[in-house]
Amino acid sequence: MIVGAGFAGYRAARTLSRLTRDKADITLLNPTDYFLYLPLLPQVAAGILEPRRVTVSLSGTLPRVRLVLGEADAIDLDEHTVHYTGPEGDGGVLDFDRLILAAGSVNKLLPIPGVAEHAHGFRGLPEALYLRDHVTRQVELAAAADPENCSARCTFVVVGAGYTGTEVAAQGQLFTDSQVRKQPLRSGMRPRWLLLDIADRVLPELDERLSRTADRVLRQRGVDVRMGTSVKEATPSGVLLTDGEFVSTRTVVWCVGVRPDPLAESLGLPMERGRLLVDPHLQVPGRPELFAAGDGAAVPDLEKPGQYTPMTAQHAWRQGKAVAHSVAASLGMGERRPYRHRDKGFAVDLGGVKAAANPFGIPLSGVAAGAVTRGYHLAAMPGNRVRVAADWLLDAVLPRQAVQLGLVREWSVPLDTASPELARVPGGPEKRVEKKGENGPVEKKGDKEPVEKKGDKEPVEKKGEKAAEKREEGAEEQPEEDRLEAGPRAGPRTDGSGESAVGETATVPLGVDAVTGSRGGEPAKSQPGGEPAKSQPGGEPAKNQPGGEPAKNQPGGEPAKGPAPGPVRHPGAGAAEPPGRVPHPDAVEAMESKRFGASAHLRRPGAAGPASRADSGEEVVPPDVLQDPDAAKHPEPPGPVQRPHPPAGRGSPATTRGGHPKPPAGPSGTPAEGDS
């Protein structure tokens, strides 16, 4: 079994499948179904490469390896089992004879106030996608902001001048410059990128000549490089630097470094700064069944006695091959080899045609270094080489697309996470989210009762609800499909006299709240938090809608039972209709055919009519006027929510487009005065 499909885990799985040739069962446990080529991640954030270009399918490139999607939670070395949690919250246990730990690393945190809340890392694909959208959005908002806000939104702070931070700042400056080239900001303003590090030079882990080259390119491009300076505190409006300066910004990218995945710490074995100690054959001493490679393993550096190999992709990729040979040798196939690697050079992509590289110790810069860097990446990638080369070619001849898709939200990519390759979802991976509306309840797998969300309150009992329940005592309860699924839907109308009028509202069954359309305080099916209405997208079609059963009062449906209800009059209406007022056609139809299946009237508190509370001596509270939020979009004032549709699905001469009944026309062809 192999835990993790990073550089070490992916290479180990591929090499083992070739060495064993179906003589061993290989299982790969990983949260995602792809291998991520991290060195090209800054180009995804800068809009050069599409996200899938830097991913390689595990099932497509490892045909003899069983892929299990999930995150390892605990390892029992005595029982030879690994407990994991799947992407939908379902857990499982996997057995093993040999175990390779290659879980990789996560963002390194420092005890700096506000960093965990206001900064974002750069270790996974979700973080790169978020940064791409966020930078685009800030530039777009800055174009319409006042000078102070424009400056803050166009200031981007990158903390850490190592491999990742240097490339992010270099690519980011080019990306924002291309965005404002055709849509300039306010006079004298341009995007500003700051690169901070407590070290005395850029790329402190590399040769000084590479550092000087990278520093020169960044400064020529306009990046504000500040060495010996870092962040003292982060706030929502900016960062306070260690030199006392406060920089107003909305973007803080945390590239300080990485730390080993905390999974290895739970084993209780000897560690070296969070990394599991192994021998030169990448085997854990005293545990013949346990191996480790990559960032989570402290591998002795045979080229530098007394030191351990650094946490780089180059070492992880080569350690994956070495640990595969060691595992195969423990199964009686081949011989194990000690890990030994001598660096052949480094390459740092600085965007465009510029880079800094020293292949085989030869320092290069400019176009030559750029060609070597991209050639190295194409050779090192285990797949997608043609697609990556095609994107590079298109970027050279076409402008970049500065579009924010909004696929990854800010709260879904926290800095303090053990899984940077996964975007956080509501409820966490241990829960199965089932939405029943826009803000529906979150349910655990197998739960029947919805889990109350934080901040939810008990349903508030509407005024007059108890009185309505008393009035409906003894009445026959109507079937669920006959109940009205939404409240009144009527828009305001201004007649010729300039007075505002409210249209007729639909009668609702007893026990159903007149505002929400729900019974007993439960959310209506068309309201947030409830089940979608049958006439709404995602719900079961209503019986009077195309695709559903005909309503009981429609042709082909079951005839309605009981007396027909009368219309509920709007607030302020008298006991009788004004002379000459033409009733709304839907109100007439409701009175004649018991359209909604109610056996009696339920009026909102204060509504006039035979069942008004004013007749019983109770205090009458005028209700809020319900208006159609989309009234301005309708060519005519809307009527009740549910409208009859012709059986064939097309409007008749007496209906508008979509099957809505036309209001009676006045003498001049306009809607009659009483229509709404």
UniProtKB/TrEMBL annotation:
Stretches assigned to the FAD/NAD(P)-binding domain: 1-320
UniProt xrefs under InterPro entries: FAD/NAD-bd_sf, FAD/NAD-binding_dom, NDH-2
Compositionally skewed regions (Acidic residues) per UniProt: 474-483
Tagged with keyword Magnesium: no
Annotated segments matching region Disordered: 419-676
Compositional bias per record (Pro residues), positions renumbered to this chain: 637-647
Low complexity: bias regions: 605-614
Source organism, top-level taxon: Bacteria
Keywords for this protein: FAD, Flavoprotein, NAD, Oxidoreductase
Pfam families: Pyr_redox_2
Compositionally biased intervals (Basic and acidic residues): 429-473, 583-595
GO molecular function per UniProt: NADH dehydrogenase activity
SUPFAM superfamilies: FAD/NAD(P)-binding domain (SSF51905)
Entry keyword annotation includes Disulfide bond: no
Family the entry assigns: Belongs to the NADH dehydrogenase family.
Protein name per Swiss-Prot or TrEMBL: Dehydrogenase
Annotated source species: Streptomyces curacoi
